[in-house]
UniProtKB/TrEMBL annotation:
Catalyzes phosphorolysis of the pyrimidine nucleosides uridine, thymidine and 2'-deoxyuridine with the formation of the corresponding pyrimidine base and ribose-1-phosphate. Keywords: Glycosyltransferase, Transferase. It is an enzyme of class 2 (transferase). Its EC number is 2.4.2.2. Belongs to the thymidine/pyrimidine-nucleoside phosphorylase family. The lineage of its organism: Bacteria, Bacillati, Bacillota, Bacilli, Bacillales. Its cofactor is K(+). The keyword ATP-binding does not apply. GO terms for molecular function: pyrimidine-nucleoside phosphorylase activity. This is Pyrimidine-nucleoside phosphorylase. Residues 345-418 form the Pyrimidine nucleoside phosphorylase C-terminal domain. It catalyses: thymidine + phosphate = 2-deoxy-alpha-D-ribose 1-phosphate + thymine; uridine + phosphate = alpha-D-ribose 1-phosphate + uracil; 2'-deoxyuridine + phosphate = 2-deoxy-alpha-D-ribose 1-phosphate + uracil. NCBIfam families: PRK05820.1 (NF004490), PRK06078.1 (NF004747), Y_phosphoryl (TIGR02644).
């Protein structure tokens, strides 16, 4: 079929066949189909949507556009977790060692990425000596021995997604649920996941601003996963305010260590236990979700979670003693307090704006070649619903520059205090199985 006929077919609201979708993905990746035709098709998909079968076919066509990672030499069910991204989302750093400590193999491929803080790899590199350059054999051997390893992204995975994502970015077709869902799922499947646990965020700091949109995206991804033989589930969680208290690279490593020891923030701990229980259950390491959760709680209490983290760090060249001496993490030159000027209850902590305040300090990057200040960031002392008095410290600003007036301005605009008592938002809105 000619590309123009494919565009017309979708524009008319008809369903594309697997062959037609493959023809488009293959032709576009190769450069045989020009950007203008690809753009027109993407816009037609944006307006007309895609069926469950089309979404699955698009996902698999993108998986097949490049290399795939074969994790079959790793024993057990490889469960990958994916978060749609948010502010101060420390869950990967915690969940990896946590589920590994009860026997779930974690073979994680991670990127640096753009955002308010660095990606998981940047955070881990706040630990002296830690490196993510592992040969495939070493990676597999470490996972088989220790149950966990993290490698940097390598190989030519899902080139079709890279090319299409860049095109969507400049053609007004990013926020299409079938396109987002197939983009995310293609990357997880190409990276070798047998089962996938999705954390779909909703709220000001998230891609999906409402619970309804988040639910739609989650359902589409779960359908795709199950359709192509990867057990998939999703949790819809709150990102109206940042998760946990720390936003910043070394600060989040510190928070992860606290949480693995059982001293973490309540919301972050709860979300990790929720996601972790599903991962353990999907990996077949517990009979029920409840018993999976008990195992994880025990691992935190008896120290096996933090011991697994330490072993993981050391197996990749890092200084494991950081676990017992957090002052070995990069420290900012200044810690400046931002305090309340009135009394009342915290009613808003607008996640994306707080993330931007962390960016001003250098905690994240806007371009891939930006350098990150690993020590910089914010620690929240109050969350939505907490009562405050004038003078109470709301946020500690960890900075390598002395003047942080711009950061304080940003924080002022992102934190609201109301006279009425406020309830904290729900942490988990829904689970989609
Ligand atoms: N994240 C992705 O990986 N793909 C999208 O399309 C949107 C967000
Ligand atoms: Ca956090």
């Amino acid at each position: 079929m000619r590309m123009v006929d494919l565009i017309l077919k979708k524009r008319g609201g008809q369903v594309l066949t697997a062959e037609e979708i493959q023809q488009f993905i293959h032709g576009y990746t190769e450069g045989a189909i020009p950007d203008y035709q690809a753009s027109a098709l993407l816009m037609a998909i944006y307006f007309k949507g895609m069926s469950e079968q089309e979404c699955a076919d698009l996902t698999m066509a993108m998986v097949q556009s490049g290399e795939t990672i074969d994790l079959s030499e790793i024993k057990g069910v490889k469960v990958d977790k994916h978060s749609t991204g948010g502010v101060g989302d420390t869950t990967t750093l915690i969940l990896g060692p946590l589920v590994a400590s009860v026997g779930v193999p974690v073979a994680k491929m991670s990127g640096r990425g753009l955002g308010h803080t660095g990606g998981t790899i940047d955070k881990l590199e706040a630990i002296k000596g830690f490196h993510v350059e592992l040969e495939k054999e070493a990676f597999i051997q470490i996972v088989n021995e220790n149950k966990i390893a993290v490698v940097g992204q390598s190989g030519n995975l899902t080139p079709a997604d890279k090319k299409i994502y860049a095109l969507r970015d400049v053609t007004g077709t990013v926020d299409s649920i079938p396109l987002i869902a197939s983009s995310i799922m293609s990357k997880k499947i190409a990276a070798g996941a047998d089962a996938i646990c999705l954390d779909v965020k909703t709220g000001a700091g998230a891609f999906m601003k409402t619970v309804e949109e988040a639910q739609q995206l989650a359902k589409t991804m779960v359908q795709i996963g199950n359709h192509v033989g990867r057990k998939t589930m999703a949790v819809i969680s709150d990102m109206s305010q940042p998760l946990g208290n720390a936003i910043g690279n070394a600060l989040e490593v510190n928070e992860a260590i606290d949480t693995l020891r059982g001293n973490g923030p309540k919301d972050l701990t709860e979300l990790c236990l929720t996601l972790g229980s599903h991962m353990v259950y999907m990996a077949g390491k517990a009979e029920t979700i409840d018993s999976a959760r008990e195992k994880l709680e025990t691992a935190i209490k008896d120290g096996s979670a933090i011991t697994t983290f330490k072993r993981f760090i050391e197996s990749q060249g890092g200084d494991g003693t950081v676990v017992d001496d957090l002052s070995k993490l990069p420290q900012a030159a200044y810690v400046i307090e931002f305090s309340a000027e009135e009394d009342g209850y915290i009613s808003e902590l607008i996640a994306n704006q707080i993330g931007e305040a962390a960016m001003l300090l250098g905690a994240g990057r806007t371009k891939l070649d930006d350098t990150i200040d690993l020590a910089a960031g914010l620690v929240l002392h109050k969350k939505i619903g907490d009562q405050v008095q004038p003078g109470d410290v709301l946020v500690s600003i960890h900075s390598n520059r002395e003047n942080v007036d711009d950061v304080k301005e940003k924080l002022k605009a992102s934190i609201r205090i109301s006279k009425q008592k406020q309830a904290a938002p729900p942490l988990v809105y829904k689970e989609i199985l």
